[in-house]
Design goal:
Blueprint: E1 4-8, E2 19-23, E3 32-33, E4 40-45, H1 48-63, E5 71-72, E6 78-79, H2 81-97, H3 99-138
Antiparallel strand pairs: 1-4, 2-3, 2-4, 5-6
Length: 140
């Protein structure tokens, strides 16, 4: 069920299979993203469903600061590839065991992400309207 490859991303490499990038340097180590980071690991999948499913597992591990206990380095903390491989596989396996619950959590996270996006769009509209009103008020 869990069939993915984790390796260090090289700048300029183009991946044909579904993939996601995981930041490996700094206090945001473990942060997943679809676009590549300069310092990142790449996780390659066989299909898009696995990629999306494991994206949310990686996202939840990053948000709960799970990777902080594995950071090394005194000036710029970083995450080692062997530590990441071992722990990510174990956590993904545990979280995927309850598949129905996993699907339910992913749906809830997607809904929250959609609502957050709508909220930010509304905030931007409010700021635009404020700017227009102030501009009209000041330029009489």
């Amino acid at each position: 069920m869990l069939n993915f490859i984790i390796k260090t991303h090289r700048v300029g490499t183009i991946y044909t299979k579904p993939h996601l990038f995981i930041l490996n340097k700094g206090m945001n180590s473990g942060k997943p993203q679809k676009e590549p980071f300069t310092n990142s690991f790449v996780v390659l999948f066989q299909n898009e469903d696995e990629c999306e499913s494991l994206f949310f597992i990686a996202y939840s591990l990053w948000k709960t600061k799970f990777w902080h206990q594995f950071l090394c380095g005194s000036v710029i903390p970083f995450l080692r590839l062997p530590d990441f491989k071992k722990e990510f596989f174990l956590k993904a396996k545990i979280m995927m065991e309850e598949h129905e619950l996993h699907v339910k959590h992913i749906a809830a996270l997607k809904l929250l992400e959609q609502k957050e996006k709508q909220f930010h769009e509304n905030i931007n509209l409010i700021n635009d309207m404020r700017r227009v009103i102030l501009y009209r008020y000041c330029n009489k």
